[in-house]
Amino acid sequence: MQTITVLGATGSIGCSTLDVVNRHPDKYRVFAITGYAQVELLMKQAQACAPRFVVLADDNYLEQAKQYALQYGVTAEILCGAKALEDVACAAEVDAVMAAIVGAAGLLPTLAAVKAGKKVLLANKEALVMSGALFIDAAKQSGAQILPIDSEHNAIFQCLPENFQYGKLSAAGIQKILLTGSGGPFRQRSLESFSSITIDEASTHPNWSMGRKITIDSATMMNKGLEFIEACWLFGAKANDIQVVIHPQSIIHSMVQYIDGSVIAQMGNPDMRTPIAYGLAHPERIDAGVAPLDFAEMANFTFQTPCYERYPNLKLAIQACEEGQAATTRLNAANEVAVSHFLDGHIGFCDIARVNEETLNQMEQVSVSSIQQILDQDKAARTVAVDIIRGKFAC
Ligand code: NAD
Ligand code: MG
């Protein structure tokens, strides 16, 4: 029996995690679930999985949460605030933590789980993009096992040799990590019409159903950029070990190419319950409730190279990855600001990459070596990005 905490339980990954967990009551017990604004959903989840703690990010929704707790007969203790999020991530009773808060907000609770030596199921890629070496070093020190939940990294993990050692790609005969991505909804749209892309158009992914922020990141391919950085940290790879390949059908979730000419791919229907089940049960396999692939139904299996003119955010992310930690932290922060302003209707789709680029250009190079410095860079980049948006778009 494994005891788990689900950070970000009310999100797309959180809901899929509880779906898999609820299929295996003999294997998993839920210690805590956390959420932000969707308190009714959070309490319905608590009614179904009976955790010991339900945690809110802050006390804004506490009264509402208490009322829903009464309504749904939830007896779990309700906590709120940043410290409570960290406490349920590192509590002694917990074996595994699903890190599924979106964005920088997930950094500290995810790190708390890492430092406490938990099995960490990492969906929250922004936490790793922000803190890179500190995150990986903390895991090495505590013995925490990091299991990638991002479908691409989960695929790469599955395609690596069992005895793969962190950063030793050539010793394992690896030539390239082939990071696949669908190319999003605008893969074939004329570049001239990009400036008229609407929020609704950008919020509709052709293959995956996901949270709002990652859906926009997929449309700009910033998601693939963040994943590029994530892959470097997860496997100890260098930027030139990784190649991004567009595969519009999202059936191959990524591949590893070996020096003998073999390419090993992991495939499956685009359903996050597969990598979630893999992470939960590793090294075993459990039923995830995912429909089997039907090869007879697959008409096409195509691939192409991404064009940076169409996806400037992808280029920015690869450049930031080569530049170092401060750049990736800042890019992540600027992008969170830009995406939220896009979703609020303040800036256009193409402005997201412009804000990101300008934020990086306006900030001087520094080196960062502590979490406090990372948080400072994150804050500073947000201020710069907001100023750019205010200056340019007067909102
Ligand atoms: P989502 O928006 O659906 O859910 C986010 C969760 O975080 C919610 O539970 C929300 O309550 C919580 N949250 C939001 N702001 C918070 C704050 N300030 N403090 C505490 N909690 C907060 O997002 P998602 O699509 O489930 O993605 C979650 C993470 O997983 C992201 O980092 C994303 O990049 C990654 N991921 C998602 C998918 C996917 O298919 N959805 C795939 C791969 C990776
Ligand atoms: Mg992914």
TrEMBL record:
Pathway: Isoprenoid biosynthesis; isopentenyl diphosphate biosynthesis via DXP pathway; isopentenyl diphosphate from 1-deoxy-D-xylulose 5-phosphate: step 1/6. 1-deoxy-D-xylulose 5-phosphate binds at residues 125, 151-152, 182, 205, 218, 223-224, 227. GO terms for molecular function: 1-deoxy-D-xylulose-5-phosphate reductoisomerase activity; isomerase activity; manganese ion binding; NADPH binding. Keywords: Isomerase, Isoprene biosynthesis, Magnesium, Manganese, Metal-binding, NADP, Oxidoreductase. Residues 146-235 form the 1-deoxy-D-xylulose 5-phosphate reductoisomerase C-terminal domain. Transmembrane segments: none annotated. It is an enzyme of class 1 (oxidoreductase). NADPH binds at residues 10-13, 124, 126, 211. One of its GO terms (biological process) is isopentenyl diphosphate biosynthetic process, methylerythritol 4-phosphate pathway involved in terpenoid biosynthetic process. It catalyses: 2-C-methyl-D-erythritol 4-phosphate + NADP(+) = 1-deoxy-D-xylulose 5-phosphate + NADPH + H(+). Its cofactor is Mg(2+); Mn(2+); Co(2+). It holds the Pfam family DXP_redisom_C. The keyword Phosphoprotein does not apply. Residues 267-383 form the DXP reductoisomerase C-terminal domain. Its EC number is 1.1.1.267. Residues 4-132 form the 1-deoxy-D-xylulose 5-phosphate reductoisomerase N-terminal domain. Mn(2+) binds at residues 150, 152, 227. It comes from the Bacteria. The keyword Membrane does not apply. Belongs to the DXR family. PANTHER family: 1-DEOXY-D-XYLULOSE 5-PHOSPHATE REDUCTOISOMERASE, 1-DEOXY-D-XYLULOSE 5-PHOSPHATE REDUCTOISOMERASE, CHLOROPLASTIC. NCBIfam families: Dxr, PRK05447.1-1, PRK12464.1. Catalyzes the NADPH-dependent rearrangement and reduction of 1-deoxy-D-xylulose-5-phosphate (DXP) to 2-C-methyl-D-erythritol 4-phosphate (MEP). This is 1-deoxy-D-xylulose 5-phosphate reductoisomerase. It comes from Alteromonas australica.
